# Entry
Amino acid sequence: MQRALVVRLSIGMLFCLVGLSFTAPAHAQLDLVPEPQHVTRGQGVFELESGDRITAPGDARAQWIAGFLRDRIEQQTGVALQVVAAPDYGKVVLRIDPSVHGDEAYRLDVTPRRVTIAAADDRGLFWGVQTLRQLLPLQHEVPPTIPAVSIEDAPRYSWRGVMLDVSRHFYPVAFVKQQIALASYYKFNVFHWHLTDDQGWRIQIKRYPKLTSVGAWRTEADGSRYGGFYTQKEIREVVDYARERNVMVVPEIEMPGHTSAAIAAYPELSCSGKPITVPTTWGVFRDVDCVGKDSTFRFLDNVLDEVVKLFPSPYVHIGGDEVPEGVWADCTSCQQLAKAKGLQGEAGLHSYFVNRIGAYLAGKGKTLVGWDEILEGGQLSPRAIVEVWRGPEGAKQALANGNRIILAGPFYLDTPIDRMTLEDLYRTDPFDDPLFAKYPKQVLGGEAPLWSERATPLNGDARLYPRLMAISEHLWNPAAHDWHSFLLRARAQEAWLASQRVAYGPEDEDIVDYRFIFNPTYKRWRIRAARGFDDLLLHYTLDGSEPTAASPSFGDVLDLYKPATVTVAPFRGDVQYQASRTFRIVQNLALGDPVTFAAPPAARYSASLTDGILGDIYLADGGWAGWQGVDMDTTIDLGQPTVLHSIDARFLQNMQAWVLLPRSVTFEASNDGKNWTSLQTVPLTVDPGNMRPFIRDVTFSASSPVTARYVRVVAARYGQPVNGIQTWIFSDEIILK
# Structure
C-alpha cells in the first residue's frame, strides 16, 4: 500500500504543477474528459463576479440551458449570475451560430473579458456548457477564475451510451438520475435502461398489473422479499430529467427470452403454460415467450403500446438474446407456424419473432434495437439496429446485411477490474478495426453495459467510474490515445466525483479483497484486507447489524479471539463503497484439530473443516472445501477421547456451479482410528433442478453422550453427471459439541 501511496502523491504533485498558473504555456494540459478535439490555451483568466449576466437566445431550451449553467456555477463557486435573453450582451454568452459545423459540435472561447459558447443547435450548446463546468474551480475562490482557452469540438460518434440493468438488482430513481447526470457530464448521450429480465420486471404496465405485483418481486434464499419497480410517473420523470441533460433514454423490454418474471405473472405466455416463480439465480432460463401463440404477440403489442408512449426515443430495445436451444422444438403450435411460414428450425422462428415485433414497432414510428442474436436465422430486416456483444463476427454480419450497429462487447463494465483495468480500456480502441472504416454510416457508436448480477446501488459507482471516462474518450475523440495524459486528467476528476458523493473505484484493483484466516496455535481469527484506497476504512459490527460510518473500524487487519458474527463494510468518509460482508465464527470442540481425507479436496476449494469459519452461499468466499466426482470421506483427530453430544456437517447446493447436496451423510466414531462405530446415516433428497443456492445442515444428535477420539463423516456424492458434467460436494465445517 505504501508504494501505491507514493505513486498517488507523485501524481498529485503533477496536478499541482499543471495548475499552478493559468498563464501557463499553450501546451499545458487542461483536466477535461473527454479530451476536446481542438484546444488552444490563451493568456490570462476570466474572473467570475456576482451579478454578471449570462445571455442566451430567448427560446425555452436555450433559456433552460443558461439557467442550468447559472445554477451549476453558483453551486460550485458561490457566485450568483443572472440569466437574460439576447440581445443583451453579458459576460457569459450562449449563442446559436450556423457557422459551427457538425452534429452536436460547439465552440468555446474564454478570454479575460468574456466567455462565449456557440453551437449550431441546442445539443452542441449544452455540451459546451458541460465543458465549461469542467473548467470551473472546485473550491470557492475569490474571485473564481476560468483559464483562457479556445476549444472547437464535436463527437466522434452519435451513439455514446451507458446501459444499466435494473432487473437483477433494483436501483432507486435517485441513483438512476445521478448516473444520467454523471453520464451527461462526460458527454454520453444515450441511457439504455434494461427494465425487464428473468429476475424482475421493473416498469409499470397498467393493462397488466401482475407484471409488477408478481413479476417485480422474488423470494431470496434467506426468505426475504426483494424487488421494486418504476411507476409510469417515475419513468416520465427520469425521461424528462435525461432529456434536459442531452440524454436519450432507450428502454429495453426483453423478448422472447429472459422473460421468466413476465411468465411468473402470466404463465400463459410460455409454451407450456405452467406456473413458475421469479428466479433468484442468474443465468439463462428455458421459460420464454411462445412464438407459436398469437396471444403472446397480442400481449407484447399491448405492453409496447404503453412503453412507446412513455419514451419519446425513436428506438426500443427488445433484447432478443440467449433463447435456449430446443425451447420451441417440442411446441406443437410453434412447429405448425414454422411449417406454415416455411421457417427453418428455431433460428427461423426467432427471426420471425424479431421481424414481427420490428414491424409492429415501425408502425409506431420506432426502430427495433436488439443484441446480436437477432441476426440468427438470416432474415433480419436491415432497418433494425444490432448491438454487438459477442465479437467481430456479429459486427461483420450486421454491417454486410445493411444494419446499423452499436459496439458493446469490449465495454462490459461487470467485467472484474483485474480483467478490465482503466489502462486496459484506454489502450484498446476497438473502433480502430479496419472493418468499421468500410461502413462509416452504419457504425453508430458504442455503449457500456453494467449488468447487475454483482453490481448493486452500493458498488455500482465503482463499476462505472473511472472506467466510463476512458470509454467516453473513445466515443468522443478519435485522436485521444495518450494514456499518460488521460490518466492525469482522469485522476484530476476524482475531486469532482467525490464532491458529488460518487463512490468511484480504483483504477486496477478491487475496492477491497478479504482473506479470513484461522491460526490454530493462537486460537485467533484474522481478517486481512487488501484495500484499493489507502484512506478506505473498514467499519464493522460484532452483533450481525449493518455497520455505519460511526462503527468501529480497521485498516488492513482485524484480529478476533472468540466466536462472533463479524459484519464489515468499506467506507471513505461517510460514503459506503460496497455491500457489507459477514464472517461467521462458531464454537467447535474440534477447533484447529487435524483432519485427514480419503481423497483430498480440490486445490482451489480446500478450506479447513475445523477452523470455526462458516462459508456463505457464494462458493468462492474461501470458506468451502470441495470434491468433484468423488465422495467426501473425512476424519477428525480430537487428540484424546472426548465426550460428544452432536456432530453437525454443513453442505452447499449451488447448481450454477454444479454443486449438489450429497445423497447421504454417515457419521462414525472411534477411539483408535481403526475400529469404527456407525452413529447414524442421514439420507437426503437431492434435486438437480433446484437452481436456488442454499445451505443444508445435517446433524447427528446423540440420545446419550458418545466418547470418541476420532470422528468420521462420509458424504456420498450425487453419483451421476448432470448434463455431462461431474458434480461437486461442498462442505465448510464439521462442528462437534
In short: The chain has four domains: 2-153, 159-499, 512-584, 595-736.
